Amino acid sequence: MLFPVYFVYFLIILTVITVGLSALLYIYQCDILYAGFFPPGSRSAVARPGQYGLPDKEEILVTKDGVRLRSYVLIQYGDNVAIQSPTVLCLHAHTGNMGHRLPIAQVLYKRLGYNVVMLSYRGYGLSEGNATEKGLQIDAQTALDYIKRHPILKHTKLVAYGQSLGGAVATHLVARNEDKFDAMIIENTFLSIPLLIPHIFPPMRHLVYLCHQKWRSYKTIQFIRRVPILFLSSLKDELVPPFHMAKLHKAAETSGGKVWRDFENGTHNDTCMQDGYFEAIGEFIRDHVWEA
Fold this sequence. Notes:
The chain has helices at 5-33, 79-84, 102-111, 133-149, 165-176, 193-200, 217-220, 242-251, 277-290; strands at 58-62, 68-74, 87-91, 115-119, 158-163, 183-187, 229-234, 258-263. By secondary structure, the chain is α/β, with parallel strands linked by helices. Strands 1-2-4-3-5-6-7-8 form an 8-stranded mixed beta sheet, with helices on both faces. Helix 5 (165-176) links the parallel strand 5 and strand 6. Helix 4 (133-149) packs across helix 5 (165-176).
């Protein structure tokens, strides 16, 4: 049976489109996922802590694969005060750089009294390199190693705090270094990248098998057995469906306790501006870190 010429042409065009989309997803997925270039100027301009009345201390961390990362280290004044204060390792989301998170660091440092360590991953801000799943995992480990070598911070209680992609980074880091952490906070984090793609890019839902950036947090979180976890979820999150956070909460089996806080009017990027956000963090750290 012979097919009409137009049908053959249709099949050829469909094949070309499918192959093209497949190639784009496979080759450029790191550029799509790790948007360090957005908002414009994020790779060339990074706000300084001094602009927010914070200690203007920058450290350059060198990873095991030779990438130079920029990091801010905000330590409470007075060694005795600093040692008694929890340290929060801030792991940011998939856009911007650490400078965009300084308003959050300002609250953690000034209002709540924590030491704060934050970094721009490779491919973000003024840090070198290009972002990949493996690369970001190395970056987070490098920051942890720095903290554990620091003459003051190594004596403090340590909390991993990750927003969105940073929550996946935090989950991986804590799962592999649980003995070094006292708590973890994750906000609007996804189950995995393949499970997120159908929501973000519906036309590519049949091509998820090409995704090599996995971030399978739904599996990794099950390896956290002792560390208490705070889940912060915006119920109007337009990027990561809220059920991702709900399923992560269900998958966690830590004996340290799980605390769930959701924000009815919060979207993906404004969770920290919702009423009760920092109070939830303060209560969690007070109950599970300071008084533990």
